[in-house]
Amino acid sequence: MSSTIVSLPDQTTATLPKHTYLNNEYGLKSWLLTRDHKRIGILYLITITFFFFIGGAMAGLVRLELLTPQTDLLAADTYNKVFTMHGIIMIFLFLVPSVPGTLGNFLVPIMVGAKDLAFPKINLLSWYLNTIGGIMVLAALISGGVDTGWTFTTPLSTHYVNTHVITAGLAIFVTGFSSIFTGINIIVTVHRMRAPGMTWFRLPLFIWSNYAASILMVLGTPVLAIALVLVVLERTIGIGVFDPTKGGDPLLFQHLFWFYSHPAVYIMILPGMGVISEVISTFSRKRVFGYTAVAFSSVAIAVFGFLVWEHHMFIMGVSSYSALIFSLLTMLVAVPSAIKIFNWAATLYKGSITFETPMLYAFGFMGLFTIGGLTGVFLGSLGMDVHLTETYFIVAHFHFVMVGGMLMAFLAGIHFWWPKITGRMYPENLSKLAALVTFIGFILTFFPQFILGYLGMPRRYAAYPPEFQVLNVLSTAGATVLGVGYLLPMLYLTWSLKYGKIAGPNPWQATGLEWQIQSPPVVENFLETPVVDYEAYDYEWLANKTRNEVHTVG
Amino acid sequence: MDSHAIATHPEHAHAGHDHPPFLRHHFESVEQQREATSFGMWLFLLTEFMFFGGMFVAYLVYRTWYYPAFVAGSHQLSVLLGSINTVILICSSLTMSLAVYAAQKGRKAALVRWLSITLLLGLVFLGIKASEYREKWEQHHVPGLNFSVSDFVHVNPAYPGQPALPLDMAEKTQVYFSLYFAMTGMHALHMIIGICVLAGLIFRARAGAYTSGHTNTVENFGLYWHFIDIVWNFLFPLLYLISRHQ
Ligand code: HEM
Ligand SMILES: [Cu+2]
């Protein structure tokens, strides 16, 4: 094994390493023109945090408006604009780029033992496209907003609204390219840049899940892109592809849109599942149970994800035969997700579990995602869906999956790799408190929405019958708690940049390649190409090393 | 503390290596670089395929629904111009292949020549396309801007055998022309982008950039150009030829 043994820095007197990717060059230009995947990861972290808080502010407005049954804070049309912007920003500018853009960028090359992603310049371009798309969304917001809902449903979007659909549609088109390029970069890196000995089945599961999500990005995003181009063409020059007055069919838009947007929910959730696999295995000090099953389940999710889009259209006039078939297929896609949950549970069983902050978030993920996924199965069954669709039940369902699942996973990942990214630890007790606050706030916000939906409160209305008020007040109160839960990490993570304890290369005693280089890493990650001759998550091998030694590559 | 062992400055890491100037820092070997870039290009073309795929699906669906309107619509296109353009594009694919071959053999003059001919053929294609668009404009066949159904509710003197369409079906020819403009327009946009890149390639090829062993860029652009050609080879029969016999 081409490795040397170096001793861990003494935690009390330790200093940060002399040369890191952070101090390699200075100045704004060195960041804005960087081609280092780690720096680009940080650029992403900054932009998605920014958009998360704008989207969060919009969510706050929505919840405040819903505090009372009347429309007293926002007029109905302003309300429509606010929830539309909330949806667009959260989905396209936060959830989709979150894990692949930040952690994926930072970690994929290191985890496979490469010096960078395959196409560093295109990687930088991805970030710029994402940012430009974001600015366009903000421009649409400032110049008057969009009120179609994030789904841009035709003919509403093409004929009936007078808002900035064109700007917003083009913005999504641009961010779509960002996502396509990220996907291509990750796929090529995983295929062609793996270090010697890093076979497919030695890859960390984080890589597998990002790889599967990238397949979805590459195959799905162009279809969304063309759907939006056609919407824009229909609005600007009036071609008639979706326009029923000319013989076009609005349902076609739905097909094209959901062909992307159902897989898109897996673009969002799969990378998060990758994070959870890493965290659970590290803090129970065991190889993930059924590694191959978990790896393949990611790919299975990617494949099945393309077969179920029509479950978003059950009440839109599709034929009952196709609805039936898509209902069955929808059940199928739950299987690989369930495989993951079971295997994580089996990994925890008899593991030596410790409850560090990332682990707390991971537990949050498992609980909330399970609830979200199970309610998804309800929705997939035709009869239930007809009753529950377009009610708050849907809102609760996808927030359990995307906020309870994905956002928890993102926070788990940020805490888990923070020491690697910055070289410093975050304050342990405060971060545990934040995880707890987030969890409580989340349940309080979204659980009442299941009941509201079941009772029949429709989504996307600014006013509602007074009997729903109690549950809505609960939900708004929960959103406030949740807001605090998100602000806390912002504050203490920033604080830790300067005052956090020095982390050292491997604070969690984890096994991945990323833990065997210094924190923060040097510019090209490894001084010599690492050679891998052990399986992923081989904690026994690690345990055999003496306490003060770490296996170092290069 | 000895983490310096793994913290040497990166610049030194390469001191010993000796690699050709076009090998990017993060690749281990020329071979790896070549494989990675061409794999990346194939993936990109896959996304392009999905992009056009959305429109092909729309075409297939509407064609089955509004078959007579699609037949009438396709009769309005000039098979002659379409065929000439098809031949031009196939020729340009050939000259592009010859350019790639010249690059691989390190023949600078030949490379510049074949790239220039490719560019020229591309421009001719676009010119013919533009004249077709102008004709459609004059005939009031552009949906949204100046569309009029009158050509389809009466017997067209150019095609006496073709029956006049009932008004509701005649209106569906708008869908046909919407797709015609969306699909050929997207294709033309890809051509324009390709021609811009070609101009850049010619400029750099004259400086000797691709004839000293580094042919990835020309090869990958060749793939893109062939892809444009292939898309046209689907568009032409679907839009111009099918149902012509009716
Ligand atoms: C476990 C598998 C899942 C199943 C079976 C499922 C099923 C469904 C169904 C049937 C709907 C349509 C409800 C309706 O509009 O009537 C729906 C909506 C939705 N789901 Fe899921 N889902 C699953 C996982 C996910 C995941 C992982 C996410 C996000 C990461 C997600 C996000 C959404 C969103 C955003 C909507 C709302 C779409 C809209 O109407 O605007 N779902 N889901
Ligand atoms: Cu779906």
User: What is the top-level CATH class of chain A?
Assistant: Mainly Alpha
Q: Give the radius of gyration of chain B.
A: 24 Å
How do the SSEs of chain B run, as a string of H and E? Answer: HHHHHHHHH
Low-confidence runs of at least 5 consecutive residues of chain B: 1-16
Number of strands of chain B: 0
- Name given to the CATH architecture of chain A: Up-down Bundle
* Name of the CATH superfamily of chain A: Cytochrome c oxidase-like, subunit I domain
Provide the domain count of chain A.
Answer: 1
Average pLDDT level of chain A: 91
Strand order of the largest sheet of chain A: 1-2
Helix content, binned percent of chain A: 55-70%
- Counted by DSSP, the helix tally of chain B is 9
Would you identify the regions of chain A where 5 or more consecutive residues have pLDDT less than 50?
1-10, 546-554
CATH topology of chain A: Cytochrome C Oxidase, Chain A
Catalytic activity (chain A): 4 Fe(II)-[cytochrome c] + O2 + 8 H(+)(in) = 4 Fe(III)-[cytochrome c] + 2 H2O + 4 H(+)(out)
Enzyme class (chain A): translocase
GO molecular function, one term (chain A): oxidoreductase activity
Pfam families (chain A): COX1
Please describe what this structure looks like.
- The complex is a heterodimer of chains A (554) and B (246).
- Chain A is built from 16 helices and two strands.
- By secondary structure, chain A is mainly alpha-helical.
- Chain A has a single domain, classed as Cytochrome C Oxidase, Chain A.
- Chain A is globular.
- The model of chain A is unreliable at 1-10 and 546-554 (pLDDT under 50).
- Chain B is an all-alpha fold.
- In chain B, 71% of the residues lie in helices and 0% in strands.
- Chain B has nine helices and no strands.
- In chain B, α2 runs parallel beside α9 (216-241), α4 (79-104) runs antiparallel to α5 and α5 (108-138) runs antiparallel to α8.
- Residues 1-16 of chain B have low confidence and may be disordered.
- At the A-B interface, β1, α6, α7 and α8 of A face α2 and α8 of B.
- Bound molecules: protoporphyrin IX containing FE and copper (II) ion (CU).
- Protoporphyrin IX containing FE (HEM) is lined by residues 151, 265, 268-269, 311-312, 330, 333-334, 337, 373, 376-377, 379-380, 385, 389, 394, 397-398, 401-402, 406 of chain A.
